[in-house]
Amino acid sequence: MDGPATTTAIEGAAAPGQTAAGPDGHGRLGTAAERGSARSANRAEIVSFEPATGAEVWRGKASDIDDVVARARRAWPAWAAQPLSTRMELVRRFANEVRKDADKLATIIARETGKPMWEARIEVENVVNKVEVSIRAYAERTAQRKLDNALQGTMAVRHKPHGVLAVLGPYNMPAHLPNSHIVPALIAGNVVIFKPSEKAPATGELLARCFNRAGISAAVCQIAIGGPAEGQALVAHDDVDGVLFTGSANTGITINRKLSSRPDKMVVLEMGGNNAMVVWDTPKITDAAAIIVQSAFASSGQRCTAVRRLVVKSGMYDAVMAEVKSLADRLVFGAPFDEPAPFMGPVIDNIAADGLTESFLYLLSHGGRAIKHLVRPNDSLPFLSPSIIDTTAMKDRPDVELFGPILQVIRVDDFDEAIAEANNTRFGLAASLVGGSPQEYNKFWANTRAGIVNWNRPTISPSHAAPMGGIGLSGNHRPTGYYAADYCAYPVASGEIEQPRAMIGVGLR
Ligand code: NAD
């Protein structure tokens, strides 16, 4: 792969490095060297900050990974031996604990990520709703099956848990996304080590506490505080049976490489996207603009399924882009608890904001034409305005995931060209067609390479009742969502009969 796939800074743009910042209140960890020495002397300190203010939210020591894994290993047999009904009951109690702490959890999510409070509340609802969905999915996808086989007895298909699973979470939905792995993993009889993003440890801690208060012990669902170093230690640990990862393609590829000689481990990689939305003939320009703006700028563009590239039919271009710009101009960006509520908050930190700014300038200086400039009202905070840039004239558009509020627009003349443009990426997470006829949608669906292909719907907010995953650099063909049950347990086929019954039919002397 050439260069980083997920970034806030296009390679070649004079962006700051990928190491975290120093003590200016906006960095998250020390440099790699500082982290290394702190770990060997005593464990590294993890600190999270409010993107909206720079204020410290949480501070604590990184976990000792060997200890955490040993505790999980000891807890696994008893948890796996619990009846399925008990494990289901306990995750339902977890949902109740989250309901009780809903305000607190939403507040901490909003503080640590900077997303508006209304959006943090939706994330909490998603955490709760995931429980019943996961119970249904377990029953449907990994239920026990018995096939009667007359004289041969029974052929049974049952599922077993893998053992100790490490869940590595991203910062953008720091409760809902790890939870989408944790709940199905626990139902299936695995014990879980949950390492939240180093940018959202307080959210992770509160989520883990809800599991523990529900009666799922701190050894069965255990939190491991840490950053990349602790993530690497979990991935490399011999006593970890699987890694369920949601995060950037760069990290996912690193994990994949690390485990390339370990086919025995379950590896689930949910990664980013460079998602396209194609706009074709439609009289409903206002609705189209709302779909585009939601898809590109919700969560300040910090969604894996966000639209990065808008592919617009030439004949529609002026009308669509005028409406999109006018709507984007009206979006309020502000702090999570502002009243009236903003549409979107800041990006996660100053490093991300610097990188996105440099990336916008890179696009501008390589043939892009700004339709709406990226504006950063305060250099010391990571608030960024929505931005739109026409990159049709660019020779080589960098195929990277710009994880922020930057929408690139490409103008095309015919539908085949639009599909080719949508597929012009190494990623394959989400794509959407807005407008067009049923025949055009059929063609779009059949020819677009992505795990989510929508029609007249945003690319974001996929359904819980559906699988969620991508191809290319977006995932390793193990979708989460409704299909998470599949990777949380392995099938065992058993031919069974109460007494031995056999004879050799051919070839006896
Ligand atoms: P990230 O890759 O930086 O970090 C994710 C997790 O991996 C964190 O817990 C981090 O500490 C850990 N980690 C980092 N380096 C590691 C290493 N070398 N070994 C093991 N663990 C390591 O991702 P992020 O910036 O927190 O999240 C944003 C990214 O996540 C975006 O690319 C976004 O598209 C993606 N994402 C994907 C989905 C999906 O479902 N496909 C959903 C949300 C976010």
Short overview:
One of its GO terms (biological process) is L-arginine catabolic process. With 509 residues, this protein is of the alpha/beta class.
Describe the overall structure.
38% of the residues lie in helices and 20% in strands. With 509 residues, the chain is an alpha/beta fold. It folds into 2 domains: 49-271 and 475-493, 3-Layer(aba) Sandwich (Aldehyde Dehydrogenase, Chain A, domain 1); 275-455, Aldehyde Dehydrogenase, Chain A, domain 2 (3-Layer(aba) Sandwich). Helix 4 (102-113) runs antiparallel to helix 7 (201-213) and helix 5 packs parallel to helix 6. The radius of gyration is 24 Å and the shape is globular. The N and C termini lie far apart (62 Å). Bound molecules: nicotinamide-adenine-dinucleotide (NAD).
Key traits:
single chain, 509 residues, alpha/beta, Aldehyde Dehydrogenase, Chain A, domain 1, Aldehyde Dehydrogenase, Chain A, domain 2, 2 domains, 7-stranded mixed sheet, 5-stranded parallel sheet, 15 helices, 23 strands, 38% helix, binds nicotinamide-adenine-dinucleotide, oxidoreductase, Ald_DH_CS_CYS, succinylglutamate-semialdehyde dehydrogenase activity
